[in-house]
Write a structure and sequence with these properties.
The complex is a heterotrimer.
Chain A: H1 6-17, E1 33-37, E2 45-51, E3 54-65, E4 76-82, H2 98-113, E5 123-125, E6 129-141, H3 146-159, E7 162-163, H4 165-175, H5 182-188, E8 193-194, E9 202-209, E10 212-215, H6 219-224, E11 227-233, E12 239-245, H7 252-277
Parallel strand pairs in A: 4-6
Antiparallel strand pairs in A: 1-2, 2-3, 3-6, 5-6, 7-8, 9-10, 9-11, 11-12
Helix pairs in contact in A: 2-3
Chain B: E1 8-9, E2 14-17, E3 22-23, E4 27-30, E5 33-36, E6 40-45, E7 48-53, E8 65-73, E9 77-81, E10 88-91, E11 113-121, E12 127-130, E13 138-139, E14 143-146, H1 152-156, H2 161-169, E15 173-177, E16 181-185, H3 188-204, H4 210-226
Helix pairs in contact in B: 2-4, 3-4
Chain C: E1 26-30, E2 38-44, E3 47-58, E4 71-78, H1 93-109, E5 118-128, H2 133-147, E6 157-164, E7 167-170, H3 174-179, E8 182-189, E9 194-198, E10 201-202, H4 206-235
Parallel strand pairs in C: 4-5
Antiparallel strand pairs in C: 1-2, 2-3, 3-5, 6-7, 6-8, 8-9, 8-10
Helix pairs in contact in C: 2-4
The chains are: A alpha+beta, B alpha+beta, C alpha+beta.
């Protein structure tokens, strides 16, 4: 069932007092991470990430559409996350609840604010037609730390995505009448080509229970946690995004430690991401 | 090392004939044939053909000792999750304390773990449990291990032999709930050791020669401590 | 939508080279998810489906409980990225209808009287779609239910037949579904050939219908073998080296 027994909470805390975690990991150690790409044929890009038993599938679909009025020559990114009932006995079907919305927004910000996607290179006809990128995150198996698994699968999917010139050709050809410049665009881009991206930041999540802070929380640890901190870091060792969740608090020292551990783990994960995507 | 395994059967598999056998647990009869209704292990007990499920909920039996987690406190008692298809009810009259109507949350709350016994099951499979039995109490220490209820007999062993074997090598208190929950109370390191042993029993429950392998593992664990 | 698409060539082969009574490639794996009580991952041609079963568990909200038996809730959903044009997340009318016919098929085959007041929740996610997703979904659901230890009279299995270019064929592929004359997905209990699900759209004579039904039932039996093998593969212990 889904209630965390009180004695389990005590057990996890007692282990932590001895510097241990239930699965034997160190406080700043990640579970095994597996990244697989090109999972879904219909998608322009896709990736499945497993962190321990947590499994997330991200899919990228692209379409031709109108830009936002305040960025008339930029592509558009839209992120959605689904906590589908498949993934956990506690997820309900229906419109997204606040957890799903927070997850989608954090992943979206991680991608958007870091300008991972060079949106200004996704213009087809200024002010009229740009590429719209739909990033959809599907949680498949929930065993703790959805934030990192979702972010990582989003990045891996983006890094292996191709702009679907072939599939969209009929639509683009039809638009030539109204927008003759599309002719030039199609000449410049005759085939599917990789999404223009920059070096991505990697996000690392920690939680706090009692007075212990652990990274990559398992389900049990997440369920007894009262505070959560996600830190995204880039190749230069700079911080690109942060999000604190739940209603507990962190001390300044704890935050510094989390930043350091996020930098160290971020570096390792970035290496693995690069190897798996060939980017 | 022996590596034979018991036979796995799936729903709709024909196990035998009513002429030569009797339909046991996990089977049904159609056109004179005894058919499995679940994925499980075929078990022959005199002429009875039974299917022991590999996975599933606990199917309550009156008198079984179980470990439950309190879901909700109501005015006349509590709803307790015992890993059955629905929660069981624990009446205020069935606990070792003197509980006034409406005062239930002073004694047991959501998340509390209790040892209990299955008291009643009605025709609609509504269950009641009781804590009125010596040695049943609210659990405050240690940890609970979750296993498939169908593997509990293997973990207990013939006349408790497997549990005795574990207690011989590792200092601990163990209470095995028939509903697939096992309470272990010991030093933290020993709780880890017991978990490891029980995991091995669960994974290898359907193989023969298990007792020897478990004893080997226990001896190794003890050697590790002594080093 | 008709077009000049040639669905059957001069050698009697279909677009992907299959004969009239050939199935697409099917791969089934049982027990792939950690949280679910039972699960199954299935690939059928270009379809990729993941099913998770939870239950039997208390049916919530309480007013949905049936005091005599369990209710079976199948939820069929297509991921936004599973189709050519991105689909808005959330159930649309088509998904709700498919969920309903699958729930009804499963209710017939699961021994629900054993679990009064409970629900058995079957979550079918289509991750990659290519014609025949409801058959893929129900077939995977059968395996996931067995994997969860749910008692059933049989392992339900589904398969579709149809008509293309005037000929009855088994297991329509994508273009055949779009440009063909009829589509007949069915689900059966393979032990008894009882039909649990049946839908037809298109145009068939009574003879053609009977022929298509035979094809589909035979197809179901072939798929049933693959289901059973997947279940046994998961739980037979591998010989230790």
């Amino acid at each position: 069932m889904t209630i965390v027994p009180v004695i389990k909470r005590d057990y996890i805390c007692n282990l932590a007092k001895q510097g241990k975690r239930i699965d034997g990991r160190k406080f700043d150690e990640y579970r095994k991470i597996i990244i697989e790409t090109n999972i879904v044929n219909k998608a322009e890009g896709s990736a499945r990430v497993k962190i321990g038993n947590t499994q997330v599938l991200a899919g990228i679909k692209m379409d031709v559409g109108e830009p936002y009025s305040d960025t008339p020559e930029s592509g558009v990114l839209t992120t959605a996350a689904e906590l589908i009932p498949l993934a956990s006995p506690t997820f309900e079907s229906g419109p997204p609840q606040e957890d799903a919305i927070e997850l989608a927004r954090v992943v979206d910000r991680g991608v958007r604010e870091s300008q991972v996607i060079e949106l200004d290179k996704l213009c087809i006809v200024p002010k009229e037609k740009v590429w719209i990128i739909f990033l959809d995150i599907h949680i498949l198996d929930y065993d703790g730390n959805l934030f990192d698994a979702a972010s990582l699968s989003a990045l891996a999917a983006l890094m292996t995505s191709k702009i679907p010139i072939q599939r969209m050709k009929p639509i683009l050809e039809n638009l030539k009448e109204k927008f003759p410049n599309i002719e030039k665009y199609l000449n410049d881009h005759p085939e599917d080509y990789p999404l223009p991206l920059k070096e991505p930041p990697i996000s690392c999540t920690s939680v706090k229970f009692d007075n212990f802070v652990v990274m990559d929380p398992s389900l049990d640890e997440e369920e007894i946690a009262n505070a959560r901190l996600t830190v995204a870091t880039d190749t230069n060792g700079d911080i690109r995004a942060m999000q604190k969740g739940l209603n507990g608090s962190f001390t300044r020292e704890e935050i510094q430690k989390v930043i350091k551990a996020s930098l160290d783990n971020g570096r390792e994960i970035r290496k693995q991401l690069s190897e798996n995507t060939g980017y | 090392m022996q590596d034979e395994k018991r036979q796995i059967v799936f729903p709709s598999q024909i196990l035998g004939d009513v002429k030569s056998n009797k339909a046991g647990k996990g089977t049904f009869i159609e056109n004179g044939k005894i058919i499995s209704e679940r994925l499980g292990i075929l078990n022959k007990n005199s002429e009875f053909l039974n299917v022991i499920p590999l996975k599933g909920r606990y199917e309550p039996v009156i008198g079984d000792f179980v470990i439950g987690i309190v879901e909700e406190s109501l005015s006349a008692g509590w709803l307790v999750d015992i890993n059955a298809p629905s929660p069981a009810f624990l009446h205020t009259e069935e606990v070792p304390w003197d509980v006034e109507f409406g005062d239930t949350d002073k004694y047991l709350n959501r998340g509390d773990t209790i040892m209990a016994k299955v008291l009643k099951i009605d025709e609609l499979k509504k269950m009641q449990v009781t804590m009125k039995d010596r040695n049943l109490f609210k659990i405050n220490n240690g940890d609970i291990i979750d296993v498939e209820p169908s593997k509990i007999p293997r973990i207990i062993g013939k006349q408790g032999s497997m549990i005795s074997l574990i207690k011989k090598y590792i200092r601990c208190r163990i209470f095995v709930g028939k509903n697939g929950k096992i309470w272990v109370d010991a030093e933290l390191d020993n709780i880890e050791r017991v978990k490891k042993v029980i995991e091995k029993i669960e994974n290898e429950a359907i193989k023969f020669g298990l007792t020897n392998r478990i004893e080997e593992l226990l001896k190794k664990e003890v050697r590790n401590v002594q080093q | 939508m008709k077009s000049d698409k040639v669905l059957i060539d001069d050698n009697g082969k279909r677009l992907d080279g299959r004969g009239f009574d050939e199935l697409r490639n099917i791969k089934i794996e049982a027990g792939v998810l950690h949280r679910a009580d039972g699960s199954c991952y299935l690939e059928w041609g270009g379809n990729k489906v993941l099913v998770a079963v939870y239950g039997p568990r208390e049916a919530i909200p309480r007013h949905t409980q049936n005091s005599l038996r369990a209710i079976v809730n199948a939820r069929y959903n297509m991921a936004a990225f599973s189709v050519e044009d991105r689909k808005r997340p959330g159930p649309d009318r088509r998904s709700k209808e498919i969920s309903k016919v699958i729930s009804e098929a499963l209710e017939k085959i699961v021994l629900t009287e054993q679990f009064p007041r409970s629900s058995i929740d079957v979550n079918i996610e289509v991750l990659d779609a290519e014609a025949g997703t409801r058959c893929a979904g129900l077939t995977a659901a059968g395996v996931a239910l067995a994997d969860a230890g749910i008692p059933m009279k049989d392992i339900p299995v589904a398969c579709a037949a149809g008509k293309i270019a005037g000929k009855v064929v088994l297991d329509l592929g994508k273009e055949e579904d779009n440009f063909g004359d009829a589509d007949l997905p069915i689900a059966i209990s393979p032990r008894t050939n009882e039909i649990l699900l049946l839908q037809m759209d298109g145009h068939l004579t009574v003879d053609e219908f009977n022929q298509a039904l035979d094809y589909a039932i035979n197809g179901c039996h072939k798929v049933s073998e693959i289901q059973k093998k997947a279940i046994l593969d998961k739980y037979q212990i591998k010989k230790e080296e």
